[in-house]
């Protein structure tokens, strides 16, 4: 049997990788996606995904539930039990965040005592509906989110990427992540049959003092949760068309 040299094997492997990604500029393997952060020439690998079998789009009724027919509710009632809140978290936690930092922290405000703590911080227009909602979620973010990175991103020292950064950067990363996780919360809630009323009309410093005193957690948004009364919805406001909001380059 003919001996195959190491160089020939390497060449064969390289040819196979090029066959997959079509590029001769770099080695490309299953790790290429992660390397994209460091090597922009790997962007040409993105078309490799065309070889990956794509699952079907979700049924139209599901898309309608999550997006087209879902509304921001002002009159929210009903009940939301602990098991539902845990199921909600166990879905939203899988949404992606920067370096898997998962900076959002959630307080599910449900008891009359907790609602009373929240009430003074609410804008006048948001107070009554928030007190009437079965649950109001405070979505905040931990500015010391990096302390969890040894667990959340264990394959490298990601903590050192953020620890010691200035407050502005930590606030930026935390706010970005908790905003995304807030959006995951809204979609997860809709998927579980709940309605949402997200709000930024409140005094963040007052919420921070009432719920997060002595911690590195800062509030971002509030989300009323429960079952909305469709009879009390305002007409849907328009959205920007694709051409107004987007372009394909
Ligand atoms: C981050 C955020 C902050 C919001 N703040 C408030 C608020 O303080 N009070 C309020 O009544 N609605 C608030 N809204 C609701 C928006 O006005 C509403 O989601 C938007 O008009 C779309 O409505 P629709 O989902 O029914 O189409 C907020 C929504 C978001 C996502």
- Taking pLDDT < 50 over at least 5 consecutive residues as the criterion, the unreliable ranges are 12-45
Question: What small molecules are bound in this structure?
Answer: flavin mononucleotide
Into which percent range does the helicity of residues fall? 40-55%
Number of helices: 11
**Radius of gyration from the alpha-carbon trace, in angstroms:** 23 Å
| Morphology | globular
Question: What's the story with the biggest beta sheet?
Answer: 5 strands, antiparallel
Structural class: alpha+beta
Describe the structure.
By secondary structure, the chain is an alpha+beta fold. The protein folds into two domains: 46 residues, no CATH class; 173 residues, 3-Layer(aba) Sandwich (NADH Oxidase). Helix content is 41%, strand content 13%. The protein contains eleven helices and five strands. Strands 1, 2, 3, 4 and 5 form a five-stranded antiparallel sheet that branches. The structure holds flavin mononucleotide. The site of flavin mononucleotide (FMN) has 11 residues, from helix 6 and strand 4.
Keywords:
2 domains, NADH Oxidase, alpha+beta, 249 residues, binds flavin mononucleotide
């Amino acid at each position: 049997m003919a001996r195959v040299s190491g160089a020939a094997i390497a060449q064969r492997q390289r040819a196979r990788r090029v066959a997959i990604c079509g590029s001769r500029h770099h080695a490309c393997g299953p790790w290429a996606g992660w390397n994209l952060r460091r090597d922009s020439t790997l962007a040409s690998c993105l078309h490799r995904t065309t070889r990956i079998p794509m699952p079907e789009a979700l049924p139209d009724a599901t898309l309608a539930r999550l997006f087209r027919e879902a509304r921001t509710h002002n009159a929210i009632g009903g009940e939301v039990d602990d098991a539902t809140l845990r199921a909600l978290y166990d879905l939203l936690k899988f949404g992606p965040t920067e370096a898997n930092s998962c900076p959002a922290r959630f307080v599910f405000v449900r008891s009359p005592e907790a609602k009373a703590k929240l009430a003074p911080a609410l804008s006048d227009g948001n107070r009554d509906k928030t007190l009437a909602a079965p649950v109001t979620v405070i979505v905040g973010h931990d500015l010391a989110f990096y302390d969890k990175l040894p667990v959340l991103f264990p394959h490298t020292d990601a903590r050192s990427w953020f620890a010691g950064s200035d407050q502005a950067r930590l606030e930026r990363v935390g706010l970005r992540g908790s905003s995304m996780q807030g959006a995951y919360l809204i979609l997860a809630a809709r998927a579980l049959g709940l309605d949402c009323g997200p709000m930024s009309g409140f005094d963040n410093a007052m919420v921070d003092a009432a719920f997060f005193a002595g911690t590195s957690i800062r509030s971002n948004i509030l989300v009323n949760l429960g079952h909305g009364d469709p009879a009390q919805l305002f007409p849907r406001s328009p959205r920007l068309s694709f051409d107004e909001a987007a372009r394909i380059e």
